[in-house]
Amino acid sequence: MSYAHTLVPVEESATLRRTVAHAVDSAIEAADGDARITFASVLSADSTQLPGSELEASAEDLLDRIEIWAEEDAGDAELTIDTVILGADEYLFSPQDMARVIGAHAVSTGVDRIVLDPEYDPGAGQPLLEPLKSDLSGDDRFDVEEAPVEHPRRSARIVAPSSASRFIGTFVLSFVFYQLIGGFAGLFDIVTGAATALIAAITLSQVTFSRRPQLVGSFVRLGRWFVFAPVLLWEILIANLQVAAVILDPRKSIDPRMTRVHAAVWGVLPVTTLANSITLTPGTLTVRERGQDLYVHSLLPVSREGLFDGGLERWVRFVFYGRRSMRIDSPKDRGDAEVLQSPEDGDDAGGEDA
């Protein structure tokens, strides 16, 4: 079958380069005459959706790089290469939303084939490829195929060497968790908890910890967690009252905005802890994490002020790095907090510094 115009949705992935090469080669082979290919970057719901924003600029950089790859792969063949950013002017949340936008662009530009990267995922927050492929395949105005490219082999080490510290750490964590769930009901729970923890330690100790736990350091950090827990519960309570006050008082209004905070925490676990703590407090929702950059949707001005003041960030640093780390300035004082967009500013091009 011949195809005149091929569309390829793109996002950073391990198979992107191979997908581009396959799409270019197959577009040239399948064309009756001049071939045309369009590479499309789709901005998902957790993007800032602002012209000239960091995420849109990142998409443009990616498309520029892909265009160079495509020109190299095409060689002397007649191939028209286009790039486009989709979804910058609307809120895309699900695979169905993305399929609708991609399909509409395909129909409006005369696309007769869509090629999907097998690891395509623009960050919609849920498994994307199969539902996207299914929705697009329901339109008979174009064909949909998955690029037949090899997935790179992942050789990351999963099983760590056995050690007494890993065994003891897994046993203690499992035993404490069992008792918390069981409610410390008595001797029976202690015995069954110990047996369960022993089985967990024997079977899982080599995959539970990526690094060998340090006994003293682990107990110190656990103690800090017990200090942090009531602080987090207090923040959750205050945030609930603030949101409830707005709901119950019709004179008060909400002011939803997308914000970005460059957090002064380092490592996967500290960043994840901070992101989840922000989400647990009503009025703020972490919608995306990129390194130390957290994209947070804030519902109320007071929620935004608390986020920029860095209270939770300061306590997360305390848990992982100790008391001295709490002296670091707040995101607002560091210039690491920014208001990106409100729903009413969909066409605004600029951000507002905090």
UniProtKB/TrEMBL annotation:
Where's it mainly located? membrane
Give an example GO cellular component term for this record: plasma membrane
Keyword RNA-binding among record annotations: no
Ranges of Acidic residues compositional bias? 344-354
Q: Any stretches that span the bilayer, and where are they?
A: 187-204, 225-248
Keywords, comma-separated and alphabetical: Cell membrane, Membrane, Transmembrane, Transmembrane helix
Q: Which Pfam family would be a valid example here?
A: MNHE
Question: Where do the segments described as Disordered lie?
Answer: 329-354
UniProt entry tagged with the keyword Transmembrane helix: yes
Q: What does the UniProt entry say about where the protein is found?
A: Cell membrane
Membrane topology annotation: Multi-pass membrane protein
User: Which terms does the record give in the GO molecular function aspect?
Assistant: monoatomic cation transmembrane transporter activity
**InterPro entries hit by this protein:** Cation_antiport_E
Official protein name in the record: Multisubunit sodium/proton antiporter, MrpE subunit
